[in-house]
């Protein structure tokens, strides 16, 4: 790595780490979570970057260079169609196959009990052994090829496990190399390591589906609670083993369904197991978590406050980031706040004005990272992304 | 059994009790229309509670499921009668977006309130919206999305409706997580519903 790039990288890493710890760095770091914006900017279709991950990595590098990002996600187009194809996964819809080549991959959630990947009477099996349930029951349902142990083995089943496993290894290796290139070619920090989901979200997103869970919480609440408790240790371990071994960059939790439930249900199903995972990661493993609060999580700030100081970086999406700052700014760093509708429809001047306000209020004493509210897709205009960078460089120095 | 029992049971999301009371009421000769009226009133109350943040999306979904089973018990006549009552609405998730939970919730609320919904499903091309508006003569079209990439598809659908010369005949409402007043204004829509209940209110006003 050229000496000057190493220096840039070290400065950015320090800036990123300092802000994450809710302290005052030399300047507000730019840390966008950018998805299809990068591919559009680099001149690729969503189809190309989903099928060829090297193009996705390259698109991120191009943006990181041109927009001077301090830290970013090495690839938000995290669904590689090769892996989807090898496992025969049914729950991802891929651009160029099931979707228009210009829109990003999407998760498909079965609409009813008949299509659900876990049935209403299978809670006991999940609670008894989550791993066996996933391998023997869930996998055959979400895959076109995998068969359960009760069925005769097939050639396609063997190949799905073999090729799926090899694909995972191939992609994992490529991500490692891409992180290194992001560092050496752009001086940009790969900003996030392992992922966490709240146990309840795993149940609501990937197993039962939101519509089914909405009825389960009334029809069989004890089992829902026990399922969350049973999933908890696995999700903790999943984050721990995928986390940055040098503990410099955080893991992230993608918060989904918790805002849609009542206080009693949040308290019972969502919060206790997620809280335990985040506290364990922080207190036992020294790992921070990006609290990526998709939607508006302001009503649960009283609970989030219970987490240990600095254990999370609070990312505000549709919530009132200024209120978030008032309530938890003394405990946690905060990121986000630039409205996606403004990035799509506003002018560079309007974007700069919003960024300036964020820096001067939420970022007043440090502990703020510049980013959009939600993931940046192809609707964002390049000139507005440039304005975000300019405002951060112009107003973000301490 | 008082006249309000079915209403109370549904408002309190007592699934088994609703089924039991509806069956008993039918056996005792209560008119299906009268039962339907109680059920619909209960859903309106649940909608009001949702607006006051006294209940949440799962309650809407669960009450919808309870309602569906209850309407089954009332038999086919009542379903036909309910559908012809209030007017037609075209609903779909815009092109490029396959998310359906929000859209389905709007469809369910509209149907339970007695509207005839043309549900186009997900990933709906602009020309499909145009065709459905023309065929149904709906006065309202609802577009749903979950992704910010869908802003472009919303604009294109509005343009297709304009190009087809039917913009004046139809009010366009949009909803979904990334939608805001700014998105509504920039894409040329008439109404942004911040949740499914607001969508229902807008349609009800359009047909009032």
Textual characterization of the structure:
- The complex is a heterodimer of chains A (398) and B (208).
- In chain A, 54% of the residues lie in helices and 8% in strands.
- Chain A has a 6-stranded parallel sheet with strand order 5-6-7-8-9-10, sandwiched between helices. Chain A has a two-stranded parallel ribbon with strand order 1-4. In chain A, strands 2-3 form a two-stranded antiparallel ribbon.
- In chain A, helix 12 links the parallel strand 6 and strand 7.
- Chain A is built from 17 helices and 10 strands.
- Chain B is α/β, with parallel strands linked by helices.
- A 5-stranded parallel sheet of chain B has the order 2-1-3-4-5, sandwiched between helices.
- In chain B, strand 4, helix 9 (181-187) and strand 5 (191-192) form a beta-alpha-beta unit.
- Chains A and B meet through helix 10 and helix 15 of A and helix 4 and helix 9 of B.
What about the largest sheet of chain A?
6 strands, parallel
Query: Cα-atom Rg of chain B, whole angstroms?
Result: 18 Å
Task: Tell me the helix content of chain B.
Answer: 55-70%
How many beta-strand runs of chain A? Answer: 10
Q: What's the average pLDDT of chain B?
A: 92
Q: What is the N-to-C succession of helices and strands of chain B? A: HHHHHEHEHEHEHEH
- How large is the count of helical segments of chain B? 10
Which term fits the overall shape of chain B? Answer: elongated
Condensed summary:
Chain A is of the alpha/beta class and 398 residues long. Chain A has 17 helices and 10 strands. The model of chain A has no long low-confidence stretch (mean pLDDT 96).
For this entry, give a set of tags.
heterodimer, A: 398 residues, alpha/beta, TIM Barrel, 6-stranded parallel beta sheet, two-stranded parallel sheet, 17 helices, 10 strands, 8% strand, B: 208 residues, Methyltransferase, Methionine Synthase (B12-binding Domains), Chain A, domain 1, Rossmann fold, 2 domains, 5-stranded parallel beta sheet
């Amino acid at each position: 790595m050229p000496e000057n790039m190493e220096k840039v990288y070290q400065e950015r890493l320090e800036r990123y780490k300092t802000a994450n710890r809710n302290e005052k760095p030399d300047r507000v770091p730019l840390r966008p979570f950018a998805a299809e914006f990068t591919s559009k900017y680099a001149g690729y279709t969503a189809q190309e970057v989903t099928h060829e991950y090297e193009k996705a990595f390259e698109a991120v590098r191009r943006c990181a260079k041109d927009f001077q990002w301090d830290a970013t996600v090495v690839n938000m187009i995290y669904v590689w169609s090769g892996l989807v194809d090898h496992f025969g996964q049914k729950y991802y819809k891929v651009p160029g196959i099931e979707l228009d080549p210009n829109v990003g991959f999407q998760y498909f959630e079965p609409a009813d009990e008949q299509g659900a990947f876990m049935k209403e009477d299978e809670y006991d099996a999940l609670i008894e052994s989550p791993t066996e349930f996933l391998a023997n029951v869930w996998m055959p349902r979400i895959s076109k090829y995998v068969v359960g142990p009760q069925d005769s083995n097939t050639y396609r089943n063997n190949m799905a496990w073999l090729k799926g496993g090899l694909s995972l290894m191939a992609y994992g290796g490529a991500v490692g190399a891409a992180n290194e290139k992001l560092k050496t070619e752009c001086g940009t920090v790969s900003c996030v390591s392992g992922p966490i989901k709240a146990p309840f979200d795993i149940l609501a997103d990937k197993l039962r589906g939101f519509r089914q869970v909405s009825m389960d919480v009334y029809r069989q609440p004890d089992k829902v609670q026990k399922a969350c408790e049973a999933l908890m240790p696995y999700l903790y371990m999943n984050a721990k083993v995928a986390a940055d071994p040098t503990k410099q960059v955080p893991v992230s939790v993608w918060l989904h369904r918790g805002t849609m439930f009542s206080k009693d249900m949040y308290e019972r199903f969502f919060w206790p197991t997620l809280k335990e995972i985040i506290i364990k990661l922080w207190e036992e493993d020294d790992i921070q978590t990006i609290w990526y609060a998709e939607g508006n999580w302001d009503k649960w700030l009283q609970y989030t406050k219970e987490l240990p100081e600095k254990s999370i970086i609070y990312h505000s999406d549709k919530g009132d980031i200024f209120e978030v700052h008032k309530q938890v700014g003394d405990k946690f760093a905060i990121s986000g706040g630039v409205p996606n509708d403004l990035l799509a429809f506003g002018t560079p001047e309007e974007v700069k004005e919003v960024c300036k306000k964020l820096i001067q209020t939420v970022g007043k004493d440090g502990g703020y990272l510049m980013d959009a509210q939600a993931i940046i897709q192809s609707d964002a205009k390049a000139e507005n992304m440039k304005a975000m960078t300019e405002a951060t460089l112009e107003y973000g120095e301490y | 059994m008082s006249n309000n029992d079915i209403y109370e049971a549904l408002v309190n999301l007592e699934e088994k009790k609703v089924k039991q009371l509806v069956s008993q009421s039918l056996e005792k000769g209560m008119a299906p229309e009268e039962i339907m009226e109680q059920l619909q009133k209960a859903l309106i109350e649940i909608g009001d509670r949702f607006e006051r943040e006294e209940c949440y999306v799962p309650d809407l979904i669960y009450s919808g499921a309870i309602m569906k089973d209850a309407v089954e018990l009332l038999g086919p006549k009542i379903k036909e009668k309910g559908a012809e009552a209030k007017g037609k609405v075209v609903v779909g998730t815009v092109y490029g977006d396959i998310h359906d939970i929000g859209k389905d919730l709007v469809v369910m609320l509209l149907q339970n309130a007695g509207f005839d919904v043309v549900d186009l499903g997900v990933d709906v091309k602009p020309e499909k919206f145009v065709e459905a508006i023309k065929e149904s003569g709906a006065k309202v079209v609802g577009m749903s999305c979950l992704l910010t990439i869908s802003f472009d598809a919303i604009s294109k659908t509005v343009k297709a409706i304009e190009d087809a010369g039917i913009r004046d005949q139809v009010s366009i409402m949009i909803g979904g997580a990334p939608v805001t007043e700014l998105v509504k204004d920039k894409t040329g829509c008439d109404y942004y519903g911040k949740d499914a209940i607001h969508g229902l209110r807008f349609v009800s006003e359009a047909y009032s």
